Every structure is written in C-alpha cells, then in structure tokens.
Hints:
By secondary structure, this protein is α/β, with parallel strands linked by helices. The chain has helices spanning 54-59, 128-136, 164-179, 196-207, 225-234, 240-250, 257-262, 289-301, 322-337, and strands at residues 64-75, 79-88, 91-100, 106-112, 140-144, 184-194, 214-218, 276-281, 306-311. A nine-stranded mixed β-sheet has the order 1-2-3-5-4-6-7-8-9, sandwiched between helices.
Amino acid sequence: MRRWIPLVLVALLGAACSGADEPRGASTTTPVTSATPSASATAPAVDPPHPVSLPALRAADLRGGGLRLGAEVARTPQHRQYAVTYRSGGLTISGRLAVPEGAGPFPAVVLAHGYIDPAVYVNGQGMTRERAWFGDRGYVALHVDYRGHAGSSPDRSGGLDMRMGYTEDVVNAVAALRSWAGPVDDERVALVGRSMGGGIVYNALAVRPGLVDAAVVFAPVSSDAVDNFDHFIRGDAGRGDAARRILRRYGAPREAPAFWRGISARTYFTDITEPVLIHHGTADATCPIAWSRATARSLRAAGVDVTLRTYPGEQHAFGPQWALSMTRTDRFLRRHLSAG
C-alpha cells in the first residue's frame, strides 16, 4: 500500500519574506538561550502552526475508513453506482461510489466537486458525468459530499475553517477506499477535482505528499487563498457577512500575511510529489485562466511534473470540449497509474 511521505512540519510562516508566488517550506526557529552554556544544548523552540492552516492539517492524525455501501442508485452495462458513507475523523461523510462490472482490482479516483450551496446540495451532485465516465471505463470512483453536505455530518466550523475540513474529508476518502474490501487496486489511486474541488486537490497534495499517484483538476480555483477570497467572498456583495466574519477572525491579507500563506497550497508546492494535469478554458468567467497559468508556473518552478491544457472558448463548466478533456485525463491517468 502506498503511504504518504512524512515531512518536517512547517513552522510559523510569519517570518517568511519571499513574494506571494514563491514556494515556501522553510521553518523559522527561535533558539532557547542560557546564561551558562552547556555541552548538551537545549533544542530550539518551534512555534506551532496556526490551527487553521495546511501545516496544522499536515500534523493532524487523519483517519479515514469504514466505507459502507448503501442502496444501488444507478446502473449502466459497464458499472453500478451506490450511495455510500465513510468515516473522516469523528465525522460521517456521505457520497456516491461507481464500481465497474467485473472482478478487478481496478484503479480508483476520488472526486472533489466544486462549490454548491450546502443548503441545496444533494448526494453526488457536481461531478455526475465524470463519475459515470470513470465507472464506464474501469475506474472505481468515489465522489465526496464533504462535511455539511447531503447526508454528511454537519460542518461545525460555520464556514470559518477555510476549506481545511473539506481537504481532510478528501484525504480520508483515499484511506477509506484503500481499506475497503472491494475491488480497488490501492497502488493505483488518483485525485480529480473541479473548480473549488481543484483547490481542495491542491491542498490534499500539499498536506499528504505521496498519498496518491496523480492528480487532475478542471477549471480550478487559485492556489493562492487571497485570490479566492477577494474574488468569491469579498468581491461578492451577497457574501458580505461571510467576508466580515473571516476578516474579524483572521485579519485581512495585508494585516495577517502569514495566515493567508498558511492556507494557500502554493506556499507548499515544493512538497508535492505527484504529477498534476490542469484543464482550463480560456473563456472561464468564474475561475480566470490566469489563475491556472500562475499555478502551473509555480508548480513547475517547484519541480513538480505539471501539464496545463487550455481550451479555446471553453467556459467554466466545460461543454463542447468536455469529451476531449476526459480523453486526455484517461490517457494521463493510465500512464501515471500503470506502475502503481
């Protein structure tokens, strides 16, 4: 079974002084001094990471398992789909699972959907066509509902955990798939995300390097949390209350840059070990393609194997060129999952 690669915990980011687009991974320590030096020096003190941050999530004991199949909810000649639940820490997370016909074992993907208001979201919403596509082509596909969505346990953060909980649910979904007794080849697992889910995939790769073998994102949000906050929350008049609560709790990006770096996957791109494929349309008005271009540049500078595929005239949801994007996804995954 593939295991994530343990890394030294990144310490408090406040002393980092590089630009916002540069990867950061160095920790800052404050030595404990003594008036009478001795041969056995005291270990340096390291400030703990902010509790809402990717370094804090990396240090957490993330436990996923207990994947349970419920009712069969869909079927094609090539696969069947089930309502499922699994454990994510102390929470129960609901989802949908596509299982190909046959004995397996099959490669697997965990699907991270984009933003849909939890008040209207229903089980398996957001990546329905992708889930069926994967199932028909011989992949086990686990679609994650996230905490606070559909039949999942409530999200008790009140929206103030900055997607760290959703990231935990996706990381734990991989563990749940691998511990399941079903036909999953646990040496061939990938993450696939769309829009907000693409950002969650970036987070998961940074939190657990080596967790999976490859990752694919479609029309993703920015890997810089400030871009997302300014565009989707502070820039949306209807979400003014959410913006005020976040700013009161954590401070504005100019006032608290360490916090915002700590929730930005881009800060930790040097830790990512998996190859990444990014799909983005040039006419995307929801997530500007400039975000993916900046992310690809930063990943490449950090030494990550990244491919950016652009689609002229394609919008956020992908329409005419969706089939092409999936063909490219299948080719990418079969290449990178073939060796386990």
